[in-house]
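[step 3/7] inverse_fold.run input=structure_tokens len=441
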């Protein structure tokens, strides 16, 4: 993409309402624009990141055996009345009426609707287990929306729902999704810590939050230091026994319900204690027949009797992750994107546009990197060099190539690695080989 053809409304000043890093940088880098309290338009740069995160989430769900579908944002209140949640959910639910005066709502979650879909088609245990998911916009009318997309009212969420005959099978599905989440966050370049959690309005008796560490985290996390050194499970045989993949982590859980009670934390050796601030980016639940029983979502079991299906739900805040990644990875100059979700792989800075020599080198680099699938952003503007450097640091691309008349005369370009600040001078051909190898790793 050429910057001259792109839409990148970068701001020089930090908006007064932005108090945390992700909010500041998302506004300054032209990723989002606030349309009303807690509701944002996703501008091209932010939208590219959002879609990359969404695709990684999708791939890991598919790998775990979940099947994608799409449910509507507007739901009938009748389904929620069947489960008793319509009146119990609270003012966060946006309740509306259609032109026929029917009670409707903008869905904050989908347990009730997916249970209705399931009961319409599945009658026998032979059709189980099943995991269904969608990635859809949701709305929760937060009392105090703040921190940009971290605590907005409208947000993009991946929610998966599992269906099993027995509790034993349902717990297996739960841990299958547990592992899928660890793999997902690992691919996003995040160190996510699973923490025992309160089930809240979703319900159930087994739940974990996945939190990433950041100074601006909304909750205090107490955990074993070794959790930070553990790798994600990688390519797991989801047909096998998953307990071994989570046992080592489970033994290290030290946070109590809601992550505020440090009782379990006090029992750890002092040199293994760690407390920090955390941002929730995922939450998983096993809740049995909380929804299937009142909605008569029953299946015929192998014993010839009807059983209320055992369910779980599993959410990841896709749009929230954009802010979470920035909170975990930035410096005073701007964002530092992991390669897996960066809006562009490499920025090309032409220090003297309309110069035959620098233009030629930039065009060669641009064509070669695009052909290699690295997706470069070519700054072909007439702005001063300092403006170009600051803008590239702000938007946080993993690498920047600077092409200037002096370097071209010497046969070199300069590559800057955003995460480390390291600079190296290479020939254009060597630069292409270096970057191709970096993105192939």
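[step 3/7] decode complete -> sequence:
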């Amino acid at each position: 993409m050429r910057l001259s053809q792109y839409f990148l409304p970068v701001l020089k000043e930090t908006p007064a309402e932005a108090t945390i890093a992700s909010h500041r940088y998302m506004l300054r880098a032209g990723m989002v624009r606030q349309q009303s309290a807690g509701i944002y338009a996703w501008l091209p740069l932010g939208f590219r990141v959002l879609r990359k995160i969404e695709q990684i989430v999708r791939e890991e769900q598919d790998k775990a055996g979940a099947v994608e579908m799409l449910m509507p944002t507007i739901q009938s209140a009748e389904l929620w009345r069947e489960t008793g949640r319509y009146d119990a959910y609270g003012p966060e639910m946006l309740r509306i009426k259609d032109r026929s005066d029917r009670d409707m709502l903008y869905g904050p979650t989908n347990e009730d609707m997916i249970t209705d879909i399931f009961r319409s088609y599945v009658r026998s245990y032979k059709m189980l287990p099943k995991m269904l998911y969608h990635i859809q916009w949701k709305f929760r009318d937060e009392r105090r929306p703040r921190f940009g997309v971290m605590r907005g009212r409208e947000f993009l969420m991946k929610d998966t729902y599992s269906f099993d005959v027995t509790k034993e099978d349902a717990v297996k599905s739960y841990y299958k999704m547990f592992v899928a989440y660890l793999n997902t966050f690992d691919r996003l370049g995040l160190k996510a810590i699973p923490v025992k959690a309160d089930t809240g309005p979703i319900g159930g008796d087994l739940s974990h939050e996945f939190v990433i560490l950041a100074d601006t985290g909304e909750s205090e996390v107490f955990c074993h230091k070794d959790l930070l050194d553990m790798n994600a499970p990688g390519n797991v045989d989801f047909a096998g026994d998953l307990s071994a993949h989570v046992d080592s982590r489970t033994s290290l859980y030290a946070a109590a319900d809601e992550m505020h009670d440090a009782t379990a934390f006090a029992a750890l050796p002092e040199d293994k204690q760690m407390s920090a601030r955390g941002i929730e980016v995922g939450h998983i639940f096993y809740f049995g027949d909380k929804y299937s029983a009142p909605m008569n979502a029953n299946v015929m079991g192998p014993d010839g009797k009807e059983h209320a299906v055992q369910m779980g739900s599993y959410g990841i805040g896709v749009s929230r992750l954009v802010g979470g990644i920035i909170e975990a990875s930035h410096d005073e100059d701007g964002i530092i994107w992991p390669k897996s979700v960066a809006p562009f792989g490499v920025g090309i800075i032409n220090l003297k546009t309309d110069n035959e020599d620098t233009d030629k080198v930039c065009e060669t680099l641009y064509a070669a990197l695009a052909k290699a699938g690295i997706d470069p952003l070519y700054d072909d503007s007439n702005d001063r060099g300092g403006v170009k450097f600051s803008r590239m640091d702000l938007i946080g691309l993993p690498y920047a190539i600077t092409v200037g008349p002096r370097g071209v005369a010497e046969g070199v370009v300069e590559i800057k690695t955003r995460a480390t600040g390291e600079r190296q001078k290479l020939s254009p051909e060597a630069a292409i080989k270096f970057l191709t190898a970096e993105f192939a790793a």
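[step 4/7] annotate
The chain has two domains: 21-334, 344-440.
The CA atoms of residues 162 and 173 lie 7 Å apart.
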